[in-house]
Amino acid sequence: MNEFAELLVKIADKWRARWEEAKVFEADPNPEKPKFFVTAAFPYPNSPQHIGHGRTYTIADVYARYKRLRGFNVLFPMGFHYTGTPIITMAEAIAEGDKELIDIMVNVYGVPKEDLEKLKDPLQLARYFHEDIKAGMKEMGYSIDWRREFTTVDPEFKKFVVWQFERLRSKGLLTRGTHPVGWCPKHEMPVGMHDTKNDVEPEIGEFTLIKFIDDEGRVYPAATLRPETVFGVTNVWVNPRAEYVEVDVDGERWVVSKRAAFKLRYQRRRVEVIRELKGEELLGKRLLNPATGRKVPILPATFVDPDTATGIVMSVPAHAPFDYAALRDLLESEQGRELLEKLGVDSSELEPIPVISVRGYKEVPAKQIVEDMGITSQEQRKLLEEATKKLYSDEYHHGVMRSDIIGLALRHLPEEYRRYAIAAVKAWIAEKPVPEAREATKKWLEAIGYADIMYEVMNKPVYCRCGTEIVVKVLEDQWFINYGDPEWKKLAREALARMRIVPPEMREEFEKTIDWLHERACARTRGLGTELPWAKGWIIESLSDSTIYMAFYTVIHKIRKYGLQPEQLTVNFWDYVLLGSGDPKKVSKETGIPVEVLKELREEFEYWYPLDSRHSARDLVPNHLTFFIFNHAAIFPREKWPRQIVVNGLVLLAGKKMSKSLRNIIPLRKAIRVYSPDVMRASLIVGAELLQDVNFTHGLAMSVLGRLQRIYDIAKSVVSLERRRPEQLTLADRWLLSRLQYHKERVTNAYENLRLREAGIILLYEMVEDVNRYLEVRGTTPEAAWVLRKYLTEWIVMLSPITPFIAEELWQMLGGEGFVSTAKWPKIEEELRDPQAELAFQYVRRLVDDARDILRVLKSKPRVMKIVIVPREEWSLLKKAVTAASERKPQREFIQEVLAEVDDPKLRKEVAMKARKLYEFAMSLDDYTRRLIAEAEALDEKHVIEELVGVIQKAVGVEKIEVMETVEAEGKVPPAKIKAALPMRPAIVFE
Q: 10 Å Cβ neighbour count for 943?
């Protein structure tokens, strides 16, 4: 372990104990201070937390600490989520002797072998990792009010969840009916994100099954997401290598893949296998297209996935790139032509039949896009997937059904019947936009008995935590939360519109999730949690009991304080405490809880709610975070709706996603012991901005460690120096104090907008560099020590949200009062802003960089550096150029404005050239330099160089520096160099 990291761990132990002793982070209502209530998603204690988990909690804690420094009364509580199957599944696997899991527990997670026996019991396992995670959170320095800690199997919390579900039921938002759900065949229960390996939410999609019929009356249900293209079918595909079965499906004979038959059992009343057959046995059979009456052949295609839907696919080569490429392969290869001849299929039967017109495409869109992308084989799957995605999107958004599909429809019917039968095609489908035609075609085929549906897991394979692949089951007589209710969606959209979403680009993702959410099974027959009060044996699942628990934090500590029993926490109790409804005297009589206690609980909730900021990782947007919005909108009045959601990305380890299979998981507590909590916190913050994934590496951690060591060394050095307030501030003093104001403004804005990486970079890197530059110029005089102490004191306060332990140590070292965690945020002192001083240092930095660039191409080391500067009058033109560049004014317009002020025609060419050069120079400048030029007076370049000459000489490595204006330089410097001189960019010549 690094020596300084070891010191940081000892410092952390010291200050953690002092915080706990002083109860610094216990938050109670205080009418004299504005409140700020922040929460992060509570953890599942089925394994130790790894460094990826630490990111969400660190971001939330940094934000909470910042708000505390800004004068808010901050509440940051934490609970533990026991609900669901993850804990039970883990305990069962250990009890069954799962060698891989046990190896990971011992050798990756660091669980002592002697503790494995107790982990066979689900509750003991949960308690074990609960305490481990809690210890890690304390070690990381999270400013949590631990008085409010609870678990979702606590009897008090179960009563709260019962109240929540009674409220949803009373509003008609719980339904009992038949709906498709993700399903574990082994445990025979619905599953959601937290029941699956790697926390993947099963995405359920609906395929339309179009019934193609053979001569014996067997049904070949072709699965499609584009039923409107059925008019353009030339053939049906099967995978010749796959296993198929003939099955009785609710009285009909179907031919589907063997895997499809298994999945259909969970969606139909009766599915019985009659016989098994190979895909190749089906080739050449003729099937009736129910939409057109045309008999089309079954042909082979290896791209057909027997595990997707039915394994029977209709071929529409005019509009499906895969179909076009596969048919072309058959027709252009000798082997393919021989097969077609053997099967009795004429090539003319396979000509593409266009049924959709789409802007920007020729008559056969699939042919065009395949050829344009240079696709030569059906084996080029990635390219074909890309082509398919683009074409399907273009046809959906811009496509219109062709009018001539009427001539294709139902051609097998006698004309006297056909003209009536195709009336629906004329009225609902032909010449209609694709989205409208899609629904109409589906309804038409259903009406004439040739369409059905099948549900599929679209992001398959998804596995239950037990290892079984998830299928879709149509559940009957099951309880659902009806997120599809239109009025509830409207309310959720209103709640979202009122909220601040950080970062803002995530708002669209929430809007889309609200749109597609539908009924969700809310109970399981297995797992830990709260029983549905009206359905014995059904446990409310983990993403349904974790939507408004933030309200529970506000009162649980008082429930315990007054010894309230679970049976006292009735629905009427919660109605009064959380909604303010009911008569407290009647509630008191019913529950036996004193009126004063009820009112105190109500006041506590009223003070803290609404929730000010909710923090979670991006993968919870499509479920938990959106459910959080829905449930708050349904249960609470508008003034209690959440105010903000903050979404962050994940953490990679050396560029790879952490997973048990890769054995690259680093437990958070182990990382703390190696690098220290402050280094871990800062690494997770500076590694990436909010929505990006942090790539954690040893190099990143060591870089952060080095910066913290430099800050520590600077503070120790400053404390040891004699201090004396300067009678007059030097240029360097004015520069450092002005930079401090600049940093305070930027860091404040960065924290406010949760651009935490930006704040971290300024605090750990830019401010360190400023001190280094200052010391180079000013040294360690008593006057410099005074300036540095002021700089350090405010710097440490701003740094404390990210690295609180070292900040406390340095705060004490510098003589700060109390804890830095509860200090006041430094104010910007306008009187110390000095753009002139900042511009002077920026000028010198640019001068040194330019000089070094020149030196790189010189063969010999020069002794003298000549600097040619322009007259100060030229600065007015530079300021105008900077303004024009900042406003993105066209160069020609700027030059014309400058020339409008020139009366002498002889000067116009020279002025125009100077204006052009200055404009181009201004465009090359960064925003910071432009701002300084705009705010500062014209810089006395000669004076600045003379005052900082020692710094320049040392940085460039020359013995002597001569400064001269352009007039003085004539005859001493090449004319081209003199002509090149600009304000902020002097000409440089070496001798």
A: 12
